[in-house]
Amino acid sequence: MLRTRRGFFDVITGGGSSGGTAALLAARGHEAYVAELQAQRRTARPPLPPGVSEIRLSSNENPLGPGRKVLEAIEKKFPEAGRYPFNSTPADSNLVAAIASLHKVKPENVVLGAGSQEILKNAVRAFTSPQRGLVTASPTFENPTSTVKRLGHPVKEVPVDSEFRLDAGGMLAAAPGAGLVFFNNPNNPTATVHGAKTVADFVAGVRKASPETVILIDEAYHEYVTDPAYATAVPLALETPNVIVARTFSKAYGMAGMRIGYGLGRAETIKQLARFKMPYNISVFGVAAALAALDDPAYLAAESRRNTEVRDFTVKVLQELGCTCTPSQGNFLFVDVHRPAKDFRDACAKHGVMVGRDFPPFEKTHARISIGTMQEMRKAADVFRGVLKPVTAAGRQEGLWR
Amino acid sequence: MALTRRNFVRTVGVGAAGALTSSFIGARGRENLVWSALEMPVHAVEPGMIVISSNENPMGPGPKVLEAIRAAFGADGSRPGRYSGSARNLIDTLAQKHGVKPENIVLGCGSTQILRTVTHVFTAKDRPLVATIPTYEECADYATLMGNKVVGVPLNSDFMPDLDRFADASKGAGLVFYCNPSNPSSTFVGAKATRDFVAKVTRESPETTILVDEAYFEYVTNPDHETFIPLAVQNPRVIVARTFSKAYGMAGLRIGYAVGHAESIKKMAEWDAGTGTSSLNVLAMHAAIAAVEQGEEFITKERGRNASVRDFAMKWFADRGMKPTDSQANFMFVNVGRPCKEFRDACRAKKVVVARDFPPFEKTHCRIAFGTMEEMQKAVKVFAEVLGKPATAAA
Q1: Do B250 and A82 touch (CB under 8 A)?
Q2: Residue range B269-279: average pLDDT?
Q3: What is the DSSP string of B248-276?
Q4: pLDDT number for residue B14
Q5: Mean pLDDT confidence for A328-354
Q6: Minimal-distance CA residue of chain A relative to B91
Q7: What is the per-residue pLDDT for B379?
Q8: For the residues of A102-157, what is the DSSP string, one character each?
Q9: pLDDT, average across residues B28-57
């Protein structure tokens, strides 16, 4: 039963002991559960042919990671590994100050989270109740949904519109009396974005219809947006009561493994949220890494450009295969593969390409594919060509593929 | 007693003990400051300061741990950009270390997340938290945040929990927070007395869960000492919290865990589990695996190092008529004959940082962590200067 670190995956691959593992995983939060399952699936499947390495396109990560300056900043903090983050130099308070400075706000407008997930979870904890539920979309990032369900507070999930965008009108109609509205822009997994005017009108509408309702705008993919109609809602959050913008270092900054995010808003709103913050939630290394990343805007700009280029390439490849992507404004695509996501995913996995999980209610037709490096996507494109072809041969209506 | 921002524990009469003072959640001082951006000092610790305020291991982690962190960057440095799948590997490593099953373990972002999660799961409006006054406040803070009651049980004159009174107060409780060795008192309850306490609470209040916080476990040198992990995996009403922040020298990494019965662990994990996609950073998980795999030698050495410094620092105070509490941890609680704040500010002016206030003893006592021997030799010179002057406020 007991396994060493190095032995673990081998045992799982060998089968037979997965019962206890499944039970343990079942006990975890949904996202965590899914990610860990993915990790296991990766190792549980038959070994890849020689020379084929795995390409992970399942978690909307920056495939290049954080960059050399960040890694150097982490190494410089080795002597302070034993210090609490408030005792290190720089301290977590310095990170708050740097984030405040980036957004030209005061430290009181900022709260740190262990990833933006902590911001999302804590917003649900702080602002929903048995009487005042959550309004969210379907599909969208499900962390607030799973948190509110765990609390047993009500939730309304408003389907995305026919163009896979958040249904701002529908969400507005559902908002009166809600404790919290979750507005993911760009939206994961559908990859679509709403422009500044739609967001401003939505916020104004909710404020008018239900002034007690808190609006959480999750801009996790902000740095990847290229649509000129889009603008961050940070200024809106600073001038409007009960509006919070969540940001993260997990996506374009390439630091998903470091667990750093933050919330921005008016001081009185942030104060409510900060009551639920886990003390000392960012590691000494996370503090140093985030500060180094903030000090290197060129790295971020290069990552945005790189993503756009690879995104365009991948969209085109899929289009040529007759598979239409929603207009992606993130580092991932939501694409109609004309078959269950599971079939597509399993077929790709055989070639070492790992794409996203099911996203109901579109799991019968759509897959989410994260954008890797250009080299990875060229390899993945070959796999997609092979995987998506046989369906055409299997007698799909020809018109579908034009 | 002066009210502070954090002074929100309800006063609850406990049987014959009557109304208890309950300001132990009073001031969190420095540690609390990180709760609020409004109060955060930038550059709180300046270079050259001796920081003996937070019960850290001043030596930090071993070289193998640092190597593991560097290795966790990945061959091309991209791995910090990935959500980590290492939580399972760490759980397996810990399960092996403690001779338990993976389903007996849940990870946390420091034991902080564990303490908050246990409080969330096991207290309720009608099922209070019971803890000593003073103790580490995380559970009480969180219970208060949830609007659940907190019952405080004063320590006796030796700064030890009065176990009969503690057990009586625990009847009907949702959760008992049993920190052993305790913080800030640094005192320790022996294995048999703890076993008897747990048995009594379990017998008299079967629905009550007991959280045994063993954050300072590795520092105990008293032979009457054992972990409650074996009991916890058998008894769904007992949970043990452990951390890498103390003897392992990894407070900066933010990683801790709970060990308990699979049923209790499942409840905790369902509410809020630290994993590679939520609150646990990838470097911490790799570091923690390496910390366990480096073997017990590291801990044995650190325990010995701390014990020497502890003997020196405690003797220094005892020789001057200020006998500290009987420390079994990497800090002591000492009567400095003046308000802690006065002592702390005077020390800080001389670049020695000691701990915050711990009501109800903030008028007389200070918590001082053990730095390196070299640091403590310097620190006692500062203490001599500071204590050599008469107190300006009545103690």
Answers
A1: yes
A2: 86
A3: T--TTT--EEEEE-HHHHHHHHHH----T
A4: 33
A5: 97
A6: A5
A7: 98
A8: HTT--GGGEEEESSHHHHHHHHHHHH--SSS-EEEEESS--HHHHHHHHHT--EEE
A9: 59
Over range A210-218, report the average pLDDT.
98
Q: Read off the tokens for B328.
A: 């079994």
**pLDDT tens across A52-104, in order?**
889 999 999 999 999 999 999 999 999 999 999 999 999 999 999 999 999 99
What are the tokens at A278? 């886990």
Predicted TM-score (pTM) of this structure: 0.88
Tell me if A388 sits within 8 A of A355, measured CB to CB.
Answer: no
Pairing label, strands A261-265, A243-248: antiparallel
The CA-based diameter of chain B, rounded to the nearest angstrom, is 65
Helix H or strand E segment including A55: strand A55-57
CA distance A85 to chain B (A): 6
Taking alpha carbons only, the member of A147, A10, A249, A364 closest to residue B89 is A10
| Residue at token pair 């509490």 | B325
Q: What is the reported pLDDT for A51?
A: 79
Mean pLDDT of B43-65: 89
- Please give the Cα distance from B290 to B294 (Å, whole number): 6
- In eight-state DSSP terms, residue B97 is H
ipTM of the complex: 0.89
Amino acid letter for position B309: V
CA distances from residue B119 to A29, A73, A135, A372, B150 in whole angstroms, order as listed: 18, 36, 27, 41, 11
For chain B, list the strands marked E by DSSP. 50-51, 105-108, 129-133, 150-154, 175-179, 209-213, 238-243, 256-260, 331-335, 352-353, 365-369
| Closest-CA residue of chain B to A147 | B271
pLDDT band at A46 (very low <50, low <70, confident <90, very high): low
Nearest chain A Cα distance for residue B390, angstroms: 30
User: From the CA of A131, how many Å to the nearest CA of chain B?
Assistant: 16
A107 vs chain B: nearest CA distance in angstroms? Answer: 5
Question: How would DSSP label each residue in A302-361?
Answer: HHHHHHHHHHHHHHHHHHHTT-PBP---SSEEEEE-SS-HHHHHHHHHTTTEEE----TT
Position B389 scores a pLDDT of: 83
* Contact by Cβ (8 Å): A282, A94: no
Burial status of residue A325 (CB atoms within 10 A of its CB: 0-12, 13-18, 19 or more): buried
CB-CB neighbors (< 8 A) of B40 in chain A = 92-93, 96, 107
Residues with Cβ within 8 Å of A7's Cβ and at least 6 positions away in sequence, in order, are: none
A262-271, B7-16, B336-345: least confident range: B7-16
Average predicted confidence (pLDDT) for chain B = 89
Residue A258 has pLDDT above 60, yes or no: yes
Record: contact B35-A78, CB cut-off 8 A: no
Give mean pLDDT, residues B323-351: 97
CA distance linking residue B171 with residue A318, whole number of Å: 65
**Helical axes A374-393 vs A297-320, angle rounded to 10°:** 20
Residues 101-120 of B with CB under 8 A from A: 101-103, 109-110, 112-113, 116
Predicted local confidence at residue A390, as pLDDT: 53
Are residues A93 and B253, on separate chains, in Cβ contact within 8 Å?
A: no
Cβ within 8 Å, pair A27-B59: no
Note the Cα B102 to chain centre separation in Å: 24
Contacts of A114 in chain B (CB under 8 A): 109, 254, 278-281
List the structure tokens of B325. 């509490």
Q: What integer is the mean pLDDT of A178-190?
A: 98
